[in-house]
Design brief:
Layout lengths: L13 H18 L1 E5 H18 L4 H11 L2 H14 L8 E8 L6 E7 L4 H5 L11 H6 L4 H10 L9 H27 L1
Antiparallel strand pairs: 1-3, 2-3
Length: 192
Amino acid sequence: MRHGKKVAHLGRTNTHRKAMLANMASSLIEHKRINTTVARAKALKTFIEPLITRSKDDTTHNRRVAFKALRDKYAVTELFHTISEKVGDRPGGYTRIIKMGNRLGDNADMALIELVDFNDVYETAKPKKKSRRRGGKKAATTEGTDTAAETVETTEASVSPKDEAPKAEEVTETAVETPDSDATTDEKNETE
């Protein structure tokens, strides 16, 4: 029975497992994301997160502990310089595991494990806040209704400098009204 034994053996001996996790952790530090199986990704997560926590405090002892686990001085340097600066204010959860489906050869569950703070895709995918409220585009497209004109007038104050379409419409409306008023004065002059 394996009561209370939480280490995933991954079908390897102790030394082989430690070497594999050290190599995978070094690759994760270097490339910021790697593809592997779900079981290895979960084991790597428990292996690398305490090391990232230690990297926040740059002392000789912490560097030696990290080197003992990683066995790569370039990975230790990258961990204590680049990664520790980026995750300095994060209290934990430095990695993310995304399931990718099954591998074609042996149908193993595959996953992508990545460092959370180094993913630019999710940061740029955030929707930008809109500067307008309630039908700003509908009001600009519908012409001839009194409610649309009122909506355009009320949203003028909240329109950013980039959006000058409502102002251009007002200019054309006033330009149309001016010749009409001139035409009515010309008609009055002719009748007199």
